[in-house]
């Protein structure tokens, strides 16, 4: 279950109408941020897309920064919840489960992925810390898989946290270039990247010795 910190926060009016408007603000901001970048988008533009006066946005989000934080926390909360609910064969290798889940989930959410990774630099320090804590929760899933697998001899990983970030960065880059209808299907991409991930942690890998102090 996603933590309380991962739940999107907004100062929305109570009632169904207020919630609907806040959802429309999120949708419009998501599209604008993904297309033009957070810094280039104004609250006035978001308001125009929603069909309300700029001042009406402040009933739901005090600042543009609050919208960005809300979008990122919503993405992470939904991602963690989806992982908890994902259905895979019980005997599937945990690394395969993670790779397939990550690719399938993120390929359907290119805008959310772009914002969640490329706009981290635009978060204010306090907001960055909150979002980063949720990102670490997700990374911790793969780190745990790699640590357990290494202890059992299925993988060979000298630094599980570093390997986690490398694998996630590799997988998360797919939505930036993959286009449906090309030579490779989504399943082809899954198989190729799963092979890459497996080779990266294969037990026979020779690791570079750690530098001497």
Describe the structure.
The structure is a single chain. The chain has 213 residues and is mainly alpha-helical. It has a single domain (4-200), classed as Tetracycline Repressor, domain 2 (Orthogonal Bundle). Helix content is 62%, strand content 0%. The protein has 9 helices and no strands. Helix 1 (16-36) packs across helix 4 (64-85) and helix 4 packs parallel to helix 7 (125-151).
Class, according to the CATH hierarchy? Mainly Alpha
How many domains make up the coordinates? 1
CATH architecture descriptor: Orthogonal Bundle
CATH topology: Tetracycline Repressor, domain 2
Subunit organisation of the chains: single chain
Order of helix and strand elements from N to C terminus: HHHHHHHHH
Give the class from helix and strand content and strand pairing: mainly alpha
Q: Write the CATH homologous superfamily.
A: Tetracycline Repressor, domain 2
Radius of gyration: 20 Å
- Shape descriptor: elongated
Q: Secondary-structure blueprint of this entry?
A:
Blueprint: H1 16-36, H2 43-50, H3 54-57, H4 64-85, H5 94-107, H6 110-118, H7 125-151, H8 160-172, H9 186-200
